[in-house]
Write a structure and sequence with these properties.
two-stranded parallel ribbon, 65% helix, two-stranded antiparallel sheet, mainly alpha, single chain, elongated, 450 residues, 4 strands
């Protein structure tokens, strides 16, 4: 115990004095002592733990050293710097040996299927397992007390470890790094603006992976972080901070490029939750990206399954029913385009029939808000400018969509979408759309100019 305490003290002293080489040497010694002897190559990153087929047993000494390593990282995390790489790699191996898997919040718990692993669980290990799990959780939760520089070292080390895991040829790849990125960011929400660019870019990379569990976890982590960030209290409310809102929604839009159904479902579930909880607080600049990736569900370039279409339509239905008064007329034109797109999809007939009713609802909205919308269409769009909307992945769904929109243009666009449904190959859709078209013209046609 005295030797371990001396290692911690020397590592802390060397880190405080900036003697990084000596600091890393003491950390490496602790890491090697924490795991079985044949793990030396794992600690240095030459091999990956999932490749190992040996029977693994943690001795009492390994467990004692592991607790010392966790204690050092918890108490002296601010001076670890690049030493986090070795610490995290060791902890990842530990979670595999112990059969720990991340929960939805990133915390580690024993896996129900861990009994099948090549691990000999002694009585001492079983007794210390709850303590080690608790120490692991406290280590990452305490990151909220780290300085900004130290926190960035930790996040960069987690991202590097995750990239190493993906680059390995292992059949089963660890979820440790992705889970801990999520847990660390959740306890550092007030400082998420410092981490968001790095974390979101890495999690998007994970969402593209072929290994399904990591891909699904990448989507889970990214969408859970986004929900938490949107729902968190900000010094400047989101409704007055379009820059922050669009920065947060950017990765969600980029998920449209991913064809995997599990990722698309996580994306659309996240959007639906955001609209339900915070839709009324979103600034004008948030609606173009929202409509863009809802439209991506039904565009020709994205072949979506019935499940994805249904999930996407839940958000579109909510948007039309609850949020039309909050969006600019330019976005109403885009909303008509997206709604019509859901009507033309062939995955679900009931959605197409419901779309006819939504288009009728939009026509009533335009009629009842004629004066208000007409005045807005003659003004500059304020927060929403063309160059902002069409920059990067946030593009218009139709190349001919006009940005100097007029009230008559909104009506014509609406009638065109209903007209498209009038010539649909499905008789129920044709019949419903035809009745709606003539009813709309009869009720509101007097608003159209000659």
């Amino acid at each position: 115990e005295l030797v371990l305490m001396s290692h911690q003290d020397f590592a802390s002293l060397c880190g405080s004095l900036g003697i990084n080489l000596a600091r890393d040497a003491f950390i490496t010694a602790l890491c090697k002592a924490s795991l079985p002897p044949h793990y030396d190559l794992f600690i240095t990153g030459v091999k990956h733990v999932e490749d190992d087929k040996h029977l693994v047993m943690l001795s009492a000494k390994n467990i004692q050293c592991m607790r010392s390593l966790l204690s050092m990282a918890h108490c002296h995390g601010k001076i670890l710097g690049t030493g986090w790489n070795m610490v995290l790699r060791t902890l990842q191996h530990l979670t595999w040996i112990l059969g720990l898997v991340p929960t939805d919040n990133g915390q580690l718990v024993p896996s129900p299927s861990a009994d099948g692993a090549n691990v000999v669980k002694t009585a001492a290990l079983s007794a210390d397992l709850p303590i080690i799990c608790s120490m692991l959780s406290r280590l990452f939760q305490s990151s909220q007390y780290l300085s900004e520089k130290a926190l960035m070292h930790l996040i960069q080390a987690l991202c590097q470890l995750s990239a190493e895991t993906e680059a390995s040829n292992s059949r089963e790849k660890s979820l440790f790094s992705v889970g801990k990125i999520l847990e660390t960011c959740l306890v550092n929400l007030p400082r998420l603006h410092l981490l968001w660019e790095l974390v979101s870019a890495h999690l998007l990379t994970v969402c593209h992976e072929k290994y399904t569990p990591r891909r699904t976890w990448g989507a889970l982590a990214l969408t859970k972080l986004l929900r938490a960030a949107i729902e968190a209290d900000h010094s400047l409310p989101l409704s007055q901070n379009p820059e922050l809102t669009t920065a947060l929604l950017g990765p969600l839009v980029q998920m449209c490029e991913i064809r995997s159904e599990d990722v698309r479902l996580k994306q659309l579930e996240c959007l639906h939750d955001i609209l339900n909880s915070r839709g009324h607080t979103l600034p004008l600049a948030a609606w173009p990206p929202v409509l863009y990736f809802l439209g991506a569900v039904v565009t020709a370039d994205h072949a979506s399954s019935e499940t994805v279409v249904r999930q996407g339509f839940l958000s579109q239905h909510l948007l039309v029913n609850d949020f039309l008064p909050l969006i600019h007329p330019t976005c109403i034109a885009q909303c008509v385009e997206v709604t019509g797109g859901f009507g033309l999809q062939r995955a679900e007939l009931n959605i197409s029939l419901t779309v006819v009713g939504l288009l009728w609802y939009i026509s009533d909205f335009l009629y009842q808000n004629h004066d208000k919308i007409s005045s807005k269409t003659s003004e500059e769009c304020g927060e929403i400018r063309k160059q902002e909307i069409i920059s990067g992945p946030i593009v218009a769904l139709r190349q001919d969509l006009r940005w100097d929109i007029s009230f008559d243009t909104l009506w014509i666009s609406l009638f065109q979408r209903v007209g498209d449904l009038c010539i649909d190959v499905r008789p129920p859709v044709r019949k419903s759309a035809g009745q709606t078209l003539f009813s709309t013209l009869s009720a509101h046609g007097d608003l159209l100019k000659p």
